[in-house]
Amino acid sequence: MENKGLNKVDIIFEKIDNYEVLAKGFKMDKDAIIQEMLDSGLKGRGGAGFPTGMKWKFTAAEKSPEKYIVCNADEGEPGTFKDREILDRVSNKVHGGMAIAGKAIGAKKGIVYLRGEYRYLLPKLMIELESFHKMIKEIGYDFDIEYRMGSGAYICGEESALFESIEGKRGEPRNKPPYPTVSGVFGKPTSINNVETLVTAMMIIQHGAKNFIQYGTKDSRGSKVFSVSGDTPTPGIFELELGMTVQQFVNEFGDGDTKAVQVGGASGFCVPRKKFAETIIGFEGVPTGGSMKLFNSSRSMYNVLHNYLDFFTEESCGQCTPCRVGCQQLLKGVEKVKKGEAKSTYLNELMKLADTMKIAAKCGLGQSVGNAFKSIVGNFKEEIIY
Amino acid sequence: MYQVGNLVKELSDKHGHARESLMPILQAIVLKHNYLTDEAMVEVARELDISAAEVYGTASFYTFLDTQVKGKYVIRVCKTITCSMKGKSDIIHTLEEMLKIKVGETTADKQFSLIETNCIGWCHKAPAILINELPYTELTPEKVSEIIKDYMLK
User: Fold this and answer.
1) Residue of chain B minimizing CA distance to A172
2) Do the interacting molecules here have an ipTM over 0.90?
3) How do beta strands A236-241 and A223-230 pair?
4) What is the average per-residue pLDDT within B52-57?
5) Which of B 27-86 lie inside 8 A of A, CB atoms?
6) Mean pLDDT of chain A
7) Mean pLDDT of all residues in chain B?
8) Do residues B126 and B133 lie in contact, with contact meaning Cβ atoms separated by under 8 Å?
9) What order do you get walking across the sheet with A109-114 strand by strand?
10) Does domain B73-153 have CATH number 3.40.30.10?
11) Would you kindly state where each structural domain of chain A is located, as residue ranges?
12) pLDDT over 90 at A5, yes or no
């Protein structure tokens, strides 16, 4: 496996001439933009990691007079706060990335779905948006963006739930297929991309795919903004080249006593100290939407797991049984084992339940509860039982 | 209890009468009054020509669209893991002492409501709270009591 080590880079927040990059992007034809994204190997920065070029290609291939580009700014994964920072500091690049995506897929309309918790950003974003619309006009391109607010539901970060919410309904995920590229918001072909993905796309137009692939590894191209929190002397936002090991990450950000790192938030994986050296942060190892939480030896992993399960129990939309009941039972189950009301072997039953949820739950929320559950219980069994 | 008056009419004229206008309208009512009354929801249903159950069903899905009475200032304390590790309990304790209410309650004068919420995206500056839409971060019991004192004078 390639190991790039830990390198701080500055691409996402790099100052650029927005006008120039957009003018350059609009001069390219749609196939050239899509090809550039495919060549860059860019994968979605929200966590799921679907290749951005493919998403745009599928949406572009749909024959519909009306298409949408939706920016997913419903950043809710515990431990992730990079999209807030990106919107706060370089929203012009987010808007620009949406326009470039719009050109590629043939959409004249963009919608940003911003989580309710970030409403305080809205006045500033509206000013930025106004100047963006002016600039687009100057370049002579027709593209319009509007903002829609969320209202405190983690599940609305799931793409189809987000569409439902924009349409004024309960944020309950839809069945797939059809996929958003065929039938997304308002039933129209839609490309939905994470905030950071759109900025990265903009930067690929600026620097070219050739330069972009100099960073990262074969499976995880480029760099990524990490949200670092927990037991660390330096919490915050850091843009790092992809392809480092958890050990290298801990060497930089740990407090000298790191026993575990939760990579990818509550729906991600817990990596214990003994696996730090062999685990790559990226799509070839443990993927992350940016959330990196460090835990030192003073922390009880039972408390961590309990907190996550409590989170999922509250945030499950309740639509499908495996997730609604599964989350509750996992939470009750670990409580019982902790109190001694159930034998420790009951954890094996709960592990099986987590597997069932992965197969049977309707959307990514229910399917990924098992990631944290299995990796925490699997690596820290004693802490869960005693 | 507030009287919704012409607000719903004004909002639906501004945002439109299509189903997709439902969220912006409900959000605007909550922004002004902090929660939704039955009367307000029935009025919205009438304006958008959908059933009141549809409006309630949608509102009750979202934690920020409260259908229970809330105070003028809604304090949301993040309870997710990092805030929980970095002293959330002390913040809650301080707030409960100051406001003389428990989590989930509203003060008798309807000025403050205290609730817990899931991750609000300030883990690197934990513990964090929202008061209405404004975030306050890197809190200590001293810091949070200063903030609340200011709100009490508003």
Assistant:
1) B61
2) yes
3) antiparallel
4) 97
5) 27, 30, 57-58, 61-65, 79-82, 84-85
6) 96
7) 97
8) no
9) A144-149, A109-114, A68-73, A190-194
10) yes
11) 18-212, 223-296, 301-385
12) no
